[in-house]
Design brief:
The structure is a single chain. The protein contains twelve helices and eight strands. With 282 residues, the protein is α/β, with parallel strands linked by helices. It has two domains: 167 residues, NAD(P)-binding Rossmann-like Domain (Rossmann fold, 3-Layer(aba) Sandwich), CATH 3.40.50.720; 109 residues, 6-phosphogluconate dehydrogenase C-terminal fold, CATH 1.10.3660.10.
């Protein structure tokens, strides 16, 4: 059986464990900064054994599913303690900083910058689920910097999990993900804050909140431990898109203030086109 190590047993790492065990032919070793999370993962069957640094060299592959601010240090540690045949990939949603950090490392070619687009608003081992990756997209950044055989193993593994691989430059990835993911999370968090600031009676929120509100603030349930470092590491791209977002909010506020009925209707009709774009991608 192939030995796969997973460092970080939350939603993504835990779901990789479940998916690989379901495929068969893999023995899963897990590690986590939280002993509580590791015990939960082992007890729930997300992994078979604990992964300790002295076992790194025995692994056929290692998946790093940890917050983006600790990824560079951990990536170097794992690269330096694994064999020349071990593939390593991360699951972080920011790539430029990690790509730059690893660019001069002697073992860089064994590392694949990978980002499975398969998250939910939940976190921790209890959020892991079978089938999380089926029908989803996996982004691989700077593929030319990885050994072709290592790269093929990582591509094949994700295809076995039912994913489609796409390839992007790391900086391009970070800019795009700021628009379609990170801004969505900020909007959700701050909409939640705005409602709580204005509506002091929590009962009224629950009584009047329909499915639209629930779906819009769903991402506000996401883990601050995960998202604080993501926002900070993608600061440049996020600030750019946030300025555009604020400009659009101010423009809409001016239309409301001036009761521009026709302009509002035209604007909303134009924005409706996003539905066709999303449906076309799916």
């Amino acid at each position: 059986m192939k030995k796969i190590g997973i460092i970080g047993t939350g939603l993504i790492g835990g779901s990789y464990g479940l998916a690989l065990k379901q495929l068969g032919g893999y023995r899963i070793y897990a590690a986590d900064a939280s002993r509580k999370h590791l015990n939960l993962a082992l007890n729930a069957g997300l992994a078979d054994e604990e992964l300790t640094p002295d076992l790194y060299a025995e692994m056929d592959g290692i998946i790093l599913s940890v917050p983006v601010d600790v990824l560079p240090r951990l990536a170097v540690e794992v690269l330096e303690r694994t064999s020349r045949n071990t593939w390593i990939f991360d699951t972080g949603s920011i790539k430029s900083n990690l790509a730059s950090f690893l660019s001069k490392h002697a073992e860089r070619k064994r590392f694949v910058l990978s980002h499975p687009i398969a998250g939910t608003e939940y976190s921790g081992p209890g959020a892991a689920k079978t089938g999380l990756f089926e029908g989803k997209i996996n982004i691989i950044c700077n593929p030319g910097e990885s050994d072709k055989n290592i790269l093929k193993e990582v591509i094949d593994l994700h295809e076995k999990l039912g994913m489609t691989n796409h390839f992007l430059d790391a900086q391009e990835h970070d800019e795009h993900i700021a628009y379609v993911s990170h801004l969505s999370h900020i909007s959700s968090f701050l909409l939640g804050k705005t409602v709580m600031d204005v509506e002091s009676d929590e009962k009224n929120i629950f009584l009047m909140a329909g499915s639209g509100f629930a779906s819009t603030v769903r991402l506000a349930k996401s883990s601050p431990d995960t998202w604080t470092p993501i926002f900070l590491e993608n600061k440049t791209a996020l600030l750019k898109v946030m300025r555009q977002y604020l400009q659009n909010l101010n423009y809409f506020a001016s239309l409301l203030e001036e009761k521009k009925n026709e302009e509002i209707h035209t604007l909303l009709k134009e924005i409706n086109k996003i539905g066709k774009i999303i449906d076309g991608i799916r």
